[in-house]
């Protein structure tokens, strides 16, 4: 009885893959995109497989981004890592410091002789995933940035110009008051609270999120988000929440739903929200760039990106890849950089066109005239002349997943009235620095 | 403890014990040992570098004001779940004990929530208390109470307590009813003839008689609230807002799985193991006593 | 004398009143307890728009069949940000997991209890205590190191990984041990005189006598297995092995009001129905199992 049960149980799970000699080299690829995006990504892998017969990319969905990250790290520790893993941008700092766990893209390309024209990539995208000297560490793929979506009907009802979204926070505050007066129950909300209101906010105002150039300069970076401008902004949000001008929509992407269903007239969210709004919103809507505080010297400049990139991983702590496997990974990355692939992904999903030439070509064809506002994210990334400063390159902090959660928690406490903005940001800095110091210590060598 | 007449042999009993011992060894003792060992280490997420830090992880955890806040949350949450689930169950059990006809039918109608998974219970209550689509959530908002558990810590805590207690009432009900029905009828009748009022009769006679059951249930309910409610919190609030609904188990999960802080997570596991050992010891002391009754 | 009679009459009146109140309280209790399920059942028969607007009706709508069909075959593939796993797959996974855990636990515990009770051999007590001590190591407490062990053994994303580690059980072993201790020594003596060995005694005597206990335990353990959450959540990220309890919470995601609540409610009904039916239909064994395993 015992034997049969155990044998049965094991047989159910342990049907391992058999690899024959003449078959194509398998490239395991783990991603964290849910439907319908996941299906589109898997289609790209299928197209690559159909284009040649040396390599076969096996794409599999491994849960949300954080789940995929945990699964890949656990697999690496067991010597079973996938060849390629999709990692969200918050995990970048952790991956950069991962030493021999990852195979940097620049090394991969140099060893295999495969070329990818990274010069043509959007500077904000390139910067986020490269070393200070410009060498690429991972392969950029789905990238977005934060923008504003607003309800034109609500603007009209409040007597505001639906074609001119306020550019500054000061003007936006007045607009929100008028929306409220016109009977809009929720004038403003946000998704991804830390990303839109702290990370993007710091970048466009050209103020540091952390020392060492937001961590690009080394693991000894310290958070700087308790600066006067950040405090002023968070205190405004808290006060506006109390006044009914602003509504906290919840952590991560929870706030997304409040815009397409018409509850809130304005949302600060990911440019990737566009597809959903297009599908669901029953009202005319517009896209605008993130507002800034008038009177801050040098503001506004470019915003930073979000989304995910692909990392090539070694198999385990004591195992590397064969030259053949590396060539397969490099070939697949080169496939992802093809203009038609970049273009299709941008047009169908609403993520950014990561290559400038693709953007220009679509512009010339009139794509953005037919899809008004679809170019706002790209133009916002190029705002201020596209000359990124060390505050607007991106964020390179270890343990940033945890730090984001900490900032959200402290913001939530402020929104509940348990502390003011200064206290919230001081606490966030203090708790976040503990995470940074631990990370620094764990990754010293 | 042992039978007088037994079979001889060593190979057979060892073979019979083997599956249990192998599973216990691999999936209980190995990880437990691993937890203790990791609790003394600082590691990077990929396991490429490690440092032996003695009790530093414990020191960090126990001096972290947020950990203490989470411990306090856990205490509040567990106490509230235990009191609510036991109070309601006792009340219903007393009523069912009085109702002679149909007691079995009521029993059937009251015990089934035990079978509902905590995470599923969370989904049911979410559907009732969602601020925008829930029947109660909307009613509360319409009544002028700003109900939004995503931003109000007290409301979030209330919601997870209700969902957790709802499921546990049936379990307590079964035990209370069994306890009440084992009280000899003549004891109660004698008291009734003495003219003691029902409420007084309950507190002076009935309640002391079922106190062993009550104590047993208290331990079981606390263990339930500590360990089995992960699904409710994960599905409903993810520990928020702030840290308002984060419990000790939830924090082990967050630190280990989301933050990849294996050392700290392991130290927390060790602390919890000590706690479970203490709780189990209490439970067994009690059962020893009950045997002597 | 008359005073006593009046008192008795008053007591009877009070008892009658008490009983009426008891019925009322019980009825209210039952209704309160059933209400969340009622709303779920009702919710599963309306269309997504009705629920999404928050116009939650208290009575059934006309869309029940299609909602259940959608959940069953596609898991609500139209829903954004959700895992597209048909409820049929998830139910099958849950049923398999729950059954394997229950059967495995019972088999393993039966054998070890038999060894501990009917044999004298060196290390007997040590083995017993090793099993007993696992009571103090609930899986939730040591979840991360256990996950690492599973990764090392390559057992993540397998049905074996989902079930085998949960098969060791101190409570079930204790229960069977206690039960075996009540089997009279004369039975063993008689068996021995007939020339029956331990294997035959197990098959012909111990096992048949344990049938009620096995049934009782099966009910409890099936529910235990079905309702597992944290374990499958961590152990499985391959969609084909998704269980319905975990899959359901993934469908609600972050509690988005734009979710396809009708499909979710239909899935919730399917997630809770099997264990509830087991409890209701096997009530006698359920109560026996519950009260005996916990002592």
Give a structural overview.
Chain C: Residues 91-282 form the ABC transmembrane type-1 domain. Chain C: This is sn-glycerol-3-phosphate transport system permease protein UgpE. Chain C: One of its GO terms (cellular component) is plasma membrane. The complex is a heterotrimer of chains A (445), B (293) and C (295). Chain A is of the alpha/beta class. Chain A folds into 2 domains: 24-143 and 305-365, 3-Layer(aba) Sandwich (D-Maltodextrin-Binding Protein, domain 2); 144-299 and 384-442, D-Maltodextrin-Binding Protein, domain 2, CATH 3.40.190. Chain A is built from 19 helices and 10 strands. Chain A has helices spanning 2-13, 37-51, 65-77, 92-96, 105-112, 123-128, 152-157, 169-181, 193-204, 211-214, 228-243, 274-280, 323-336, 339-349, 356-365, 367-370, 376-381, 400-415, 421-442; strands at 25-31, 55-61, 84-88, 102-103, 139-151, 186-190, 246-248, 264-270, 285-288, 305-313. In chain A, strands 1, 2, 3, 4, 5, 6, 7, 8, 9 and 10 form a 10-stranded mixed beta sheet that branches. The longest helix of chain A is centred in the C-terminal third of the chain and has 22 residues, at 421-442. The radius of gyration of chain A is 23 Å and the shape is globular. Mean pLDDT of chain A is 90; it is low at 1-21. Chain B is mostly helical and 293 residues long. Chain B has 2 domains: 11-52, no CATH class; 57-292, MetI-like fold. In chain B, strand 1 (41-43) and strand 2 form a beta hairpin. Chain B is globular, with a radius of gyration of 24 Å. Chain C is mostly helical. Chain C folds into 2 domains: 2-73, no CATH class; 87-293, MetI-like (MetI-like fold). Chain C has 15 helices and no strands. The two termini of chain C are 48 Å apart. Residues 78-83 of chain C have low confidence and may be disordered. Chains B and C meet through helix 1, helix 3, helix 4, helix 5 and helix 7 of B and helix 1, helix 2, helix 4, helix 5 and helix 6 of C.
């Amino acid at each position: 009885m015992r034997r049969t049960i155990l044998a049965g149980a094991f047989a159910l799970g342990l049907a391992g893959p058999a690899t024959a000699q003449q078959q194509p080299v398998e490239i395991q690829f783990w991603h964290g995109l849910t439907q319908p995006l996941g299906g589109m990504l898997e289609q790209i892998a299928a197209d690559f497989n159909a284009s040649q017969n040396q390599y076969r990319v096996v794409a599999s969905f491994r849960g949300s981004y954080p789940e995929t990250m945990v699964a890949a790290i656990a697999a690496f520790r067991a010597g079973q890592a996938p060849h390629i893993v999709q990692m969200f941008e918050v995990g970048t700092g952790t991956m950069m410091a991962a030493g021999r766990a990852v195979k940097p893209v620049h090394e991969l390309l140099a060893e295999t002789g495969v070329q990818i024209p990274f010069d043509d990539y959007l500077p904000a995208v390139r910067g986020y995933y490269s070393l200070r000297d410009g060498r690429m560490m991972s392969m950029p793929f789905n990238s977005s940035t934060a923008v504003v979506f607003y309800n034109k009907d609500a603007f009209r009802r409040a007597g505001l110009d639906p074609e001119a979204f306020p550019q500054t926070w000061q003007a936006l505050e007045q607009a929100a008051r008028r929306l409220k007066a016109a009977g809009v129950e929720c004038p403003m909300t946000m998704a991804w609270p830390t990303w839109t209101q702290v990370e993007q906010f710091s970048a466009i105002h050209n103020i540091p999120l952390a020392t060492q150039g937001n961590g690009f300069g080394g693991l000894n970076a310290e958070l700087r988000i308790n600066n006067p401008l950040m405090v002023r902004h968070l205190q405004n949000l808290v006060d506006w929440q109390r006044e009914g001008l602003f509504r906290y929509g919840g952590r991560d992407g929870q706030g997304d739903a409040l815009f397409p269903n018409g509850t809130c007239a304005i949302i600060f969210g990911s440019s990737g929200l566009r597809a959903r709004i297009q599908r669901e919103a029953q009202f005319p809507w517009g896209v605008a760039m993130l507002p800034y505080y008038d009177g801050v010297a040098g503001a506004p400049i470019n915003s930073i990106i979000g989304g995910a990139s692909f990392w090539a991983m070694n198999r385990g702590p004591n195992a590397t890849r064969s030259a053949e496997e590396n060539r397969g990974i490099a070939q697949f990355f080169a496939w992802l950089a093809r203009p038609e692939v970049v273009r299709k992904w941008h047009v169908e999903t609403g993520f950014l066109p990561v290559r400038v030439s693709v953007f220009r070509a679509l512009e010339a064809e009139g794509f953005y005239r037919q899809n008004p506002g679809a170019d706002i994210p790209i133009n916002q990334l190029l705002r201020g002349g596209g000359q990124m400063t060390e505050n607007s390159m991106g964020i390179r902090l270890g343990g940033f997943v945890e730090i984001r959660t900490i900032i959200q928690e402290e913001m939530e406490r402020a929104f509940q009235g348990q502390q003011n903005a200064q206290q919230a940001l001081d606490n966030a800095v203090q708790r976040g620095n503990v995470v940074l110091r631990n990370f620094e210590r764990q990754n010293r060598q | 403890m042992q039978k007088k007449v037994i079979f001889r042999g060593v190979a057979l009993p060892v073979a019979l014990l083997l599956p249990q011992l192998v599973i216990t060894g691999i999936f209980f003792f190995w990880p437990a040992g691993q937890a203790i060992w990791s609790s003394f280490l600082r590691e990077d997420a990929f396991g490429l570098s490690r440092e032996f830090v003695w009790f530093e992880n414990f020191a960090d955890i126990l001096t972290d004001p947020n950990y203490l806040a989470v411990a306090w949350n856990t205490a509040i949450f567990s106490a509230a779940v235990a009191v609510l689930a036991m109070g309601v169950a006792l009340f219903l059990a007393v009523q069912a004990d009085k109702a002679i006809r149909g007691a079995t039918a009521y029993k059937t109608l009251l015990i089934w929530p035990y079978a509902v998974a905590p995470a599923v219970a969370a989904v049911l209550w979410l559907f009732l208390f969602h601020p925008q689509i829930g029947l109660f959530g909307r009613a509360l908002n319409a009544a002028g109470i700003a109900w939004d558990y995503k931003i109000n810590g007290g409301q979030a805590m209330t919601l997870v307590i209700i969902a957790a207690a709802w499921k546990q009432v049936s379990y307590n009900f079964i035990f209370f009813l069994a306890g009440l029905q084992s009280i000899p009828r003549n004891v109660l009748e004698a008291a009734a003839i003495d003219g003691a009022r029902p409420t007084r009769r309950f507190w002076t006679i009935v309640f002391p008689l079922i106190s062993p059951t009550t104590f047993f249930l208290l331990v079981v309910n606390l263990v339930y609230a500590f360990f089995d409610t992960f699904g409710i919190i994960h599905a409903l609030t993810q520990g928020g807002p702030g840290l308002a609904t984060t419990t000790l188990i939830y924090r082990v999960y967050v630190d280990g799985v989301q933050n990849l802080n294996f050392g700290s997570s392991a130290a927390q596991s060790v602390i919890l193991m000590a706690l479970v050992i203490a709780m189990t010891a209490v439970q067994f002391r009690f059962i020893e006593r009950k045997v002597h009754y | 004398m008359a005073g006593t009679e009046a008192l008795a009459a008053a007591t009877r009146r009070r008892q009658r009143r008490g009983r009426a109140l008891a019925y009322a309280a019980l009825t209210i209790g039952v209704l309160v307890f059933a209400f969340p399920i009622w709303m779920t059942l009702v919710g599963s028969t309306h269309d997504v728009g009705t629920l999404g607007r928050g116009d939650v009706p208290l009575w059934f709508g006309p869309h029940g069949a299609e909602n259940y069909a959608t959940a069953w075959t596609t898991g609500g593939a139209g829903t954004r940000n959700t895992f597209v796993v048909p409820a049929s797959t998830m139910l099958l996974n849950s049923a398999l997991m729950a059954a394997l855990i229950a059967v495995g636990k019972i088999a393993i515990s039966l054998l070890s209890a038999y060894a501990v009770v009917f044999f004298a051999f060196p290390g007997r007590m040590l083995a017993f205590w090793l099993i007993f001590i696992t009571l103090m190591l609930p899986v939730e407490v040591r979840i991360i190191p256990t996950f690492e062990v599973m990764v090392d053994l390559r057992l993540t994303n397998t049905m074996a990984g989902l079930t085998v580690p949960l098969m060791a059980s101190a409570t079930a072993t204790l229960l069977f041990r206690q039960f075996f201790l009540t089997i009279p020594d004369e039975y063993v003596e008689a068996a021995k005189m007939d020339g029956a060995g331990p294997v035959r005694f197990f098959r012909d005597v111990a096992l048949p006598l344990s049938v009620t206990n096995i049934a009782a335990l099966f009910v409890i353990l099936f529910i235990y297995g079905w309702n597992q959450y944290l374990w499958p959540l961590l152990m499985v990220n391959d969609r084909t092995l998704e269980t319905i309890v975990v899959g359901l919470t993934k469908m609600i995601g972050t509690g988005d009001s734009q979710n396809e609540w009708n499909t979710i409610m239909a899935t919730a009904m399917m997630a809770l129905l099997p264990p509830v039916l087991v409890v209701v239909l096997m009530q006698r064994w359920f109560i026996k199992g519950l009260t005996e395993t916990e002592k």
